[in-house]
């Protein structure tokens, strides 16, 4: 009897007697049909978007600014005016394209952005701290990780990932899966004015299948398929040991070419054109640009290991003096394995959103604590060729460019003000007991923190998934609502004590309603972007609405926020998107919330420590308010009890630190309530 072959297609388990390779065309056809079955992204009406725009901006402008904006908006939306003409062009575009805003959005959010990718654009996922007792331990971890990547890639190649379904608000709808299939098949190519997202559409990977291993600022080609056989974990470890020895034995100074990818996009594009003059460099670039992913074997950073320092190391590698050159930021997935146990993944954000990074990372960490029987899938390859070191020819001109890139990264490292804080007084379970949305509640808390720090409300970005639609990415939830401002003002005004709870619920309800607007394709940011780009394509003079101060203020996202919940012990972090702003990523768990807050030292008004202090105080005050209104026990006493419990927990944890497991990957029970509010990146917003 023939053993059956098993595949998962669209969440269904398929068992048959045909090898999976023969099923791939059928699965690919199913995927295409499934994506086409999703509805197209709707196009909001012009009048609704303009009315919402005015409501979102009135309280963020002076009276004089708003009066001017109101007149400009009225003229733009007048019958027979410019707005109606541009709206008609978008209606035509929606008929012709799978997603009318996708190209506009991708260029505006990412590819037109000239800022350097590290900190400014690329988010990082920080894995649990590992306890490597010897150098071989980190290589074993890396081999195990690569094996998991190859397992996940097999699922992707077979189009066998179960379809995601919406959770949180308006749950149950199938979601577009297109982003997953760009994880290991895309590359961001720098350009002088605009980058290009190079995405391979075929489901069959070109030969040879390889990853790039970065070690001591050198790059090595690690073939993961040799003689039509995928390397098992033992073979991968053997190859990684060879790479480690080769990197350590290099006699000649090696130029840290990876530093070039950390520079501004225009500067990197110019440097790349210089590199391309030499055939040796062209071959090396080709191998990197076609690889599945990077695995970066980092030296110990020398820093004290804390959540904050590990987050910073993931974002920038510590700069040119540490592991900053041991990167290639144009690749979507760079897995970091530090000799000091600092591990995680850095992603280039243009191909996919944060949920894709989370799902992939969780799969890998769960794989790594799976049963040993899953670790070996193929017989060992008897003759393993040595991994190949990529070579570079550096002219004096290139040496100057490298110095310039190193200076830029050094300044970026010095400028980043990162603070990761675990708020342990309560988590999302307490918020749910108040019959409030945890995401909306935390967004209001962020508004309160900023108001207490700076005394005003500012334009805020929280992206919402639009994956209910074909080629859906994100739109913006405008969290700085008039209702949120009314609440945060009340929290600083003793006269309004009796109304605080009413105002809190009103702010949360408004936030929730806007979230629903965004995830159903009816928010304003993508629509306004489409109108602006339609005018540009028609070679019209830029309409006054897009030159107005209000539009510039509306797109200067001082608060760039994102909820990135996980079921595995890890957290996400990223930098601010404007010089005077904050990045605020949060991971709500049942009894605690992890916040990753970033700002820039160069701005005298921002301070991550101060923001976190105001955030913690605000969350405590909101809990006190809820408890008083519900007649619960004294809030201060409850906090003291929580802190006592936490102290006992820490003592218990400390007593077990002398006997850690290796690798140390912690997994929690899956949560059923992923919110639809996701976030991330550009001079716009994050996740």
Automatic annotation (TrEMBL):
The keyword Cytoplasm is annotated on this UniProt entry: no
Known role: Catalyzes the reversible synthesis of acetylcholine (ACh) from acetyl CoA and choline at cholinergic synapses.
Protein name, per record: Choline O-acetyltransferase
Annotated PROSITE patterns: ACYLTRANSF_C_1 (PS00439), ACYLTRANSF_C_2 (PS00440)
Gene3D superfamilies documented for this protein: Chloramphenicol acetyltransferase-like domain, Choline/Carnitine o-acyltransferase, domain 2
EC number: 2.3.1.6
GO MF terms held by the record: choline O-acetyltransferase activity
One example of a Gene Ontology biological process annotation: neuromuscular synaptic transmission
Gene Ontology CC annotation, any one: cytoplasm
Reactions performed catalytically: choline + acetyl-CoA = acetylcholine + CoA
Domain Choline/carnitine acyltransferase as annotated: residue spans: 41-616
Compositionally biased residues, Polar residues: 641-664
Region annotated Disordered, chain positions: 631-687
């Amino acid at each position: 009897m023939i053993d059956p072959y098993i595949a998962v297609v669209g969440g269904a388990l398929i068992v048959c007697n045909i090898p999976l390779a023969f099923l791939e065309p059928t699965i690919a056809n199913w995927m295409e049909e499934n994506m086409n079955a999703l509805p197209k992204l709707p196009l909001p009406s012009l009048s609704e978007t303009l009315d919402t725009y005015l409501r979102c901006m009135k309280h963020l402008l002076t009276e004089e600014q708003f009066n001017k904006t109101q007149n400009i908006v009225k003229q733009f939306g007048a019958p027979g005016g410019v707005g109606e003409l541009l709206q008609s062009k978008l209606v035509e575009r929606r008929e012709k394209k799978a997603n009318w805003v996708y190209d506009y959005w991708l260029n505006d959010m990412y590819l037109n952005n000239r800022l350097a990718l590290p900190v400014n654009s690329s988010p990082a996922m920080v894995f649990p701290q590992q306890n490597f007792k010897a150098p071989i331990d980190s290589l074993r971890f890396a081999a195990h990780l690569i094996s998991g990547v190859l397992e996940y890639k097999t699922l992707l190649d077979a189009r066998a990932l179960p379809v995601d379904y919406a959770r949180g608000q308006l749950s149950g709808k199938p979601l577009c899966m297109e982003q997953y299939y760009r994880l290991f098949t895309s590359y961001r190519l720098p350009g002088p004015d605009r980058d290009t997202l190079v995405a391979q559409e075929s489901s069959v990977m070109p030969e040879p299948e390889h990853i790039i291993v970065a070690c001591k600022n050198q790059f090595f080609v690690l073939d993961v398929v040799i003689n039509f056989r995928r390397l098992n974990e033992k073979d991968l470890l053997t190859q990684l040991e060879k790479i480690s020895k080769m990197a350590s034995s290099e006699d000649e100074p090696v130029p840290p070419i990876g530093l070039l990818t950390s520079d501004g996009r225009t500067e990197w594009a110019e440097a790349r054109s210089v590199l391309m003059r030499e055939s040796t460099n062209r071959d090396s670039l080709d191998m990197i640009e076609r690889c599945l992913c990077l695995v970066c074997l980092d030296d110990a950073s020398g820093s004290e290991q804390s959540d904050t320092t590990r987050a910073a190391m993931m974002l920038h590698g510590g700069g040119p003096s540490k592991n900053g050159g041991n990167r290639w930021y144009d690749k979507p997935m760079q897995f970091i394995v530090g000799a000091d146990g600092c591990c995680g993944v850095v992603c280039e954000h243009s191909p996919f959103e944060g949920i894709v990074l989370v799902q992939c990372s969780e799969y890998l960490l769960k794989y790594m604590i799976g049963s040993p029987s899953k670790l070996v899938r193929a017989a060992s390859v008897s003759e393993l060729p040595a991994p190949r070191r990529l070579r570079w020819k550096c002219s004096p001109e290139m040496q100057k460019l490298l110095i310039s890139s190193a200076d830029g990264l050094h300044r970026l490292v010095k400028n980043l003000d990162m603070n990761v804080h675990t708020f342990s007084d309560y988590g999302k379970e307490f918020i749910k007991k108040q019959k409030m949305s945890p995401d909306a509640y935390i967004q209001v808390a962020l508004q309160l923190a900023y108001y207490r720090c700076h005394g005003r409300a500012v334009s805020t970005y929280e992206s919402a998934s639009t994956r209910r639609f074909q080629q859906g990415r994100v739109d913006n939830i405008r969290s700085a609502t008039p209702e949120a401002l009314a609440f945060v003002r009340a929290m600083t005004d003793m006269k309004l004590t009796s109304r605080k709870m009413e105002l809190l619920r009103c702010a949360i309800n408004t936030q929730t309603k806007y979230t629903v607007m965004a995830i159903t394709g009816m928010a304003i940011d993508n629509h306004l972007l489409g109108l602006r780009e339609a005018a540009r394509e028609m070679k019209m003079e830029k309409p006054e609405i897009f030159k107005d101060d209000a539009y510039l203020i509306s797109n200067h996202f001082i608060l760039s926020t994102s909820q990135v919940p996980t079921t595995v012990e890890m957290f996400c972090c990223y930098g601010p998107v404007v010089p005077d702003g904050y990045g605020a990523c949060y991971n709500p768990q049942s009894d605690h919330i992890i916040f990753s807050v970033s700002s820039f030292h160069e701005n005298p008004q921002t301070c991550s420590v101060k923001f976190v202090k105001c955030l913690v105080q605000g969350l405590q005050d909101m809990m006190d308010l809820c408890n008083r209104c519900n007649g619960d026990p004294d809030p201060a006493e409850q906090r003291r009890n929580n802190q006592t419990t936490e102290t006992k927990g820490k003592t218990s944890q400390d007593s077990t630190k002398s006997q850690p497991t290796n690798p140390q990957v912690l997994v929690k029970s899956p949560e059923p309530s992923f919110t639809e509010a996701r976030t991330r990146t550009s001079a716009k917003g994050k996740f």
